[in-house]
């Protein structure tokens, strides 16, 4: 088990170094940052001075070494547009994005699993058909459109919920949270649903399909022959067997939730990392773009690692194959 | 005569399909007495498993019991409300399925599955149920049960898993065990062990056993009586010695002729020509008539009903008024 975790961790580091190369090469191929920073009438000498102060005239390999070394300490240089350390900018905005992503995932998991189980067990009920229709909408409508429609309905027409921003936030150390104020919670509702809707439909369809599959297995038939209660069969035996693929998908999707947050954050003007990234793209602020790439990759890699470990907790069969394999 | 543990009368099971209703079981009747092992034998699709499943009330839609009745120790169970039938399953009727590799939930320890079943049916504490589970595992011949109880199904071999399945089937002391091809998925040496285990448990607990199989060897070794099924009907039923040594129904004769002997004679085994009709195309009259060497006009028109013949009962026109010798 320890060897397995360790091996996966080493693989994760390998992936991060590869991402580092891509992030670093962005600096070299996305145009000359000095031109972006200075005015038209800046002299050549001034340009060279800026170039030197930013370390852009060193050999590539030295620059890469410096970049990786810094990145390992979470130093991603100074933003071209804000003239502030990128790390500070990202950290400032990370709580907003993470809170949004976690709320969206929790919303997606809870409603997705409940709807999936219901539509598998009561396949022919009208509510199951409604869920199927909703899931089609969730899968086919683009995120920004859902967000805009919701703003139109709940903010503009009904005036129930704020159309942009995070509401009031509370500072806990360096973390800012909107979960403790009423306006913060209200502001979270629409972005979370918008962001989580796609995941919800995915989980719902997955749970439904898996549940139908599991209900046909011999051990469910045997559980019925043993006279177990319907409740124990459905939720004790069937649901748990559907959870392995659900954990995988939900886990891996958490990475895309953070990545997709770019769109949701833009629609709702949510002050998170995604919004920062969009602004960085508009201004060719490469340090922010590179750091964002590294951050998102780190989150993806970490989630993969956690999902692998979670598997072995849910499914005992993997536990022993894993320990036998080493 | 005391009341039989299981009494099935004129059971009919139908499956609604797009091309009309298919009758999988057509007027099947039999009894199983306390402590008796009834072997149910027949080709694939003869209705053996469906009979077992309809007794325990586990026929999946679109299948349904269309007629007849099933009585367990006198109590009619084929029309019980689902919740009451659930209490009968596992408590009064235990069931063993064919494939032990897939019968157990892979995510739970075998002990937890046994304890769960015990506590569903008997009013026992967690600790008492666990002690009982260990005793049960010991009884079905699992070595070191106090250790193995915390093992997961995948840590057991096929034969050991079938023992666990048997422990689960008997954990609430049922009056009847339905064993649906319990040895088919096991290798031959393990088969014998499982068969003798089922036999011993039936004897020790006075449990009636309905043993569904297509293996005549297993039947001959285990059963007290045997029912030969063909196309959803019982062709012949009687004490196992009589049916094996002196089968009456032409189909039963064919089945017995297809068993190789160890006597060393190199006679060719008898083969029944043709195959069993599909449910959608069961012939008129006796369903066996197209394959029967003795069929005459009446067989193609009128369905034969079971006729007592000594200890045996046979559904064949050859034995109606005509003397038995002419069939041989």
Structure description:
By secondary structure, chain A is an all-alpha fold. Chain A has a domain at 95-270: Orthogonal Bundle (MetI-like fold). Helices cover 77% and strands 2% of the residues of chain A. Chain A is built from 13 helices and 2 strands; from the N terminus they run αααααααββαααααα. Chain A has helices at residues 2-29, 33-37, 44-53, 60-72, 86-121, 126-140, 143-157, 182-215, 218-225, 230-268, 273-282, 286-314, 316-324, and strands spanning 170-172, 175-177. Chain A has a two-stranded antiparallel ribbon. In chain A, helix 7 (143-157) packs across helix 10 (230-268). Mean pLDDT of chain A is 83; it is low at 322-326. Chain B is globular, with a radius of gyration of 21 Å. Chain B has 11 helices and 12 strands. Mean pLDDT of chain B is 85; it is low at 323-328. In chain B, helix 4 (110-121) packs across helix 5 (126-139), helix 5 (126-139) crosses helix 7 (158-170) and helix 7 (158-170) runs parallel beside helix 8. Chain B has 328 residues and is of the alpha/beta class. In chain B, strand 9 (225-230) and strand 10 (233-239) form a beta hairpin. The interface between A and B is medium-sized, with 23 and 31 residues.
Low-confidence stretches of chain A: 322-326
CATH superfamily of one domain in chain A: MetI-like
Radius of gyration of chain B: 21 Å
- What's the CATH class label of one domain in chain A? Mainly Alpha
Number of helices of chain A: 13
Helix content of chain B: 25-40%
What distance lies between the first and last C-alpha atoms of chain B, to the nearest angstrom? Answer: 33 Å
Helices and strands of chain A, in order, run as HHHHHHHEEHHHHHH
CATH architecture verdict of one domain in chain A: Orthogonal Bundle
Mean pLDDT level of chain B: 85
Q: What gap, in angstroms, lies between the N and C termini of chain A?
A: 8 Å
Percentage of β-strand residues of chain B: 15-25%
Q: Return residue spans of chain B where pLDDT drops below 50 for at least 5 consecutive residues.
A: 323-328
Distinct helical segment count of chain B: 11
Secondary structure tally: strands of chain B? 12
**Biggest sheet, spatial arrangement of strands of chain B:** 6-7-8-3-9-10-12-11
């Amino acid at each position: 088990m320890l060897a397995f975790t360790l091996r996966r961790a080493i693989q994760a580091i390998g992936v991060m170094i590869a991402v580092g190369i891509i992030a670093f090469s962005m600096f070299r191929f996305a145009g000359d940052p000095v031109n972006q920073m200075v005015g038209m009438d800046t002299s050549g000498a001034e340009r060279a001075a800026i170039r030197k102060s930013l370390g852009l005239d060193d050999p590539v390999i030295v620059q890469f070494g410096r970049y990786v070394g810094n990145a390992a300490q979470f130093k991603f240089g100074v933003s071209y547009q804000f003239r502030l350390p990128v790390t500070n900018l990202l950290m400032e905005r990370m709580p907003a994005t993470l809170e949004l992503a976690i709320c969206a995932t929790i919303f997606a998991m809870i409603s997705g699993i409940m709807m999936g189980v219901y539509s598998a067990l009561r396949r022919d009920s009208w509510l199951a058909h409604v869920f199927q229709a909703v899931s089609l909408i969730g899968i086919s409508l683009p995120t920004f459109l859902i967000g805009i429609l919701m703003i139109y309905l709940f903010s503009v027409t009904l005036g129930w919920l704020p159309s942009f921003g995070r509401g009031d936030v509370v500072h806990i150390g360096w973390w800012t949270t909107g979960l403790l104020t009423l306006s913060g919670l209200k502001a979270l509702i629409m972005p979370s649903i918008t962001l989580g809707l796609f995941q919800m439909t995915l989980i719902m369809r997955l749970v439904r399909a898996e549940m139908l599959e599991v209900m046909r297995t011999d051990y469910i038939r045997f559980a019925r022959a043993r006279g177990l209660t319907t409740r124990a069969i459905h939720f004790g035996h069937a649901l748990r067997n559907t959870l392995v693929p659900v954990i995988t998908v939900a886990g891996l999707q958490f990475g895309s939730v953070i990545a997709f947050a770019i769109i949701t954050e833009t629609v709702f003007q949510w002050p998170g990392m995604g919004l920062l990234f969009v602004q960085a793209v508009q201004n060719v602020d490469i340090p922010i773009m590179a750091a964002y790439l590294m951050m998102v990759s780190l989150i993806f890699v970490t989630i993969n690692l956690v999902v692998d470990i979670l598997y072995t907790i849910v499914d005992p069969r993997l536990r022993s194959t894993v320990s036998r394999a080493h | 005569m005391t009341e039989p543990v299981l009494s099935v009368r004129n059971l009919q099971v139908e499956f609604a399909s797009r091309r009309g209703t298919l009758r999988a079981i057509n007027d099947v009747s039999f009894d199983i007495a306390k402590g008796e092992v009834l072997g149910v034998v027949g080709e694939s699709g003869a209705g053996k498993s469906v009979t077992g499943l309809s007794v325990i009330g586990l026929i999946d839609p679109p299948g349904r019991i269309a007629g007849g009745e099933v009585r367990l120790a006198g109590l009619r169970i084929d029309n019980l409300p689902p919740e009451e039938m659930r209490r009968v399953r596992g408590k009064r009727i235990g069931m063993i399925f064919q494939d032990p590799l897939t019968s157990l939930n892979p995510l739970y320890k075998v002990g937890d599955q046994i304890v769960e079943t015990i506590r569903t049916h008997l009013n026992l504490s967690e600790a008492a149920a666990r002690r009982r589970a260990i005793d049960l595992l010991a009884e079905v011949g699992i070595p070191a049960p106090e250790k193995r109880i915390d093992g997961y199904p995948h840590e057991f071999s096929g034969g050991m898993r079938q023992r666990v399945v048997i422990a689960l089937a008997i954990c609430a002391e049922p009056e009847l065990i339905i064993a649906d091809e319990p040895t088919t998925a096991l290798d031959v040496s393990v088969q014998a062990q499982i068969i003798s285990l089922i036999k011993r448990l039936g004897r020790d607990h006075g449990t009636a056993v309905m043993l569904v199989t297509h293996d005549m060897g297993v039947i001959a070794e285990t059963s007290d009586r045997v029912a030969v099924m063909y196309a959803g009907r019982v062709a012949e039923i009687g004490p196992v010695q009589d049916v094996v040594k002196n089968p009456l129904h032409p189909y039963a004769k064919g089945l017995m002729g297809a068993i190789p002997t160890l006597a060393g004679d190199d006679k060719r085994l008898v083969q029944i020509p043709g195959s069993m009709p599909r449910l959608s195309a069961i012939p008129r009259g006796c369903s066996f008539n197209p394959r029967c060497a003795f069929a005459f006009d009446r067989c193609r028109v009128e369905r034969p009903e079971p006729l007592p013949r000594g200890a045996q009962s046979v559904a064949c026109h050859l034995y109606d008024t005509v003397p038995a010798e002419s069939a041989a």
